[in-house]
Amino acid sequence: MTIPASPPAPASPIAWFNNQPYLLLSLTSLFWAGNVVLARYVAGHVPPITLSCVRWVGTFFLLLPFAWPHLRRDWKILVAHWPMMLVFSATGFAFNNVLSYTAMKYTTALNGLLMQSSGPLFVALWSLTLFGVRLTRGQFLGIAISLTGVLTIILHGDITALTSIRLNKGDLMYAGCMFAFGLYSALMPRRPKTHQLSLIGFTTGCGALMLIPFSIWELASGNATLSFDGLTFATLLYVAIFPSTLAYLFFNRGVALIGPNRAAPFQHLMPVFGSALAIVLLGETLKPFHLVGYAMVLAGVIIASRRGSATARAA
Questions:
Q1: Cβ partners under 8 Å of residue 59, min gap 6
Q2: Which H or E run includes 162?
Q3: Which of 85, 137, 177, 197 could lock 67 by a disulfide, CB 3.0 to 4.6 Å apart?
């Protein structure tokens, strides 16, 4: 008599969540959109280098209790790949973050969102340059559609608004931020095989160390002051938890599951979430161009992130 095999144990909610790349990447965009809105709000109140430094110092110590066992086990692997780890730390945490916060002092929301929408193009450029990975037709079409949706939202459905855009040093800073983060995204699938907590713990710690001397200089120069009030505390708490600890864990895992080119179009959700936050928190009015833009962004993300396009490319 054959004893029937026991059914497999159901996956825990955390294990299920950890294998949902679309959900992980969507939440990443939501948290990063909140970070952009907050950065605009506190520009001039919290110095940009200090904000970046405290963000990653806080993230490192939040992660350390959970990452420590994995760091001890993976330490030799991480140290053996120290050049790549330093590149990750600079492009994903220190350099690009300072540029984005500083840019918010000089550029408009319209220009910033336009620059943010170029993120997938920088990922594709780095992937092609470094590894010869080309966009599939589905990925190219999806990026084009979602970028059109983003433009629809941020231009309020008026294409003539493009003629009023003027580039300034803030725009160039934001372009540099996206250039750096594109390299981080393209390199992520080539990272050493370690636990994701040890990877992000190591790189956030290195990123914080890179920023500490510059933060000290910023405060000592007399050109910036840090006010210890409720707004500062709430800002630092938010940036350390949501767009840092959680968003980077989710982003790294999402890229590991579906690859950088399929993950990159999810950055186009940031302007969608950003405008939605403005509607909910700032009392802006929902208009038809919002709905048209949302639909186009969603369609583009679905097309660009399809498994079929990646399978065809691999074949």
A1: 204, 208, 240, 241, 244, 245, 248
A2: none
A3: 197
Give the model confidence (pLDDT) of 26-44 as tens digits: 999 999 888 888 887 787 7
- Distance of alpha carbon 56 from the chain centroid: 14
| Digit-coded pLDDT (tens) for 139-162 | 888 888 877 887 787 777 777 777
**Angle value at C-alpha 183, between 182 and 189, nearest 5 degrees:** 100
**CA proximity to 276, closest of 256, 290, 265:** 290
In a domain, 247, yes or no: yes
The long-range contacts involving 74-81, CB below 8 angstroms and separated by at least 24 positions, are 74/192, 74/194, 74/195, 74/198, 74/199, 75/198, 77/192, 77/193, 77/194, 78/192, 78/194, 78/198, 78/199, 78/202, 80/192, 81/191, 81/192
Q: How many domains does the chain have?
A: 1
* Domain span including residue 271: 46-314
Q: How far is CA 96 from CA 87, 89, 140, 190, 231, in A?
A: 11, 10, 25, 20, 24
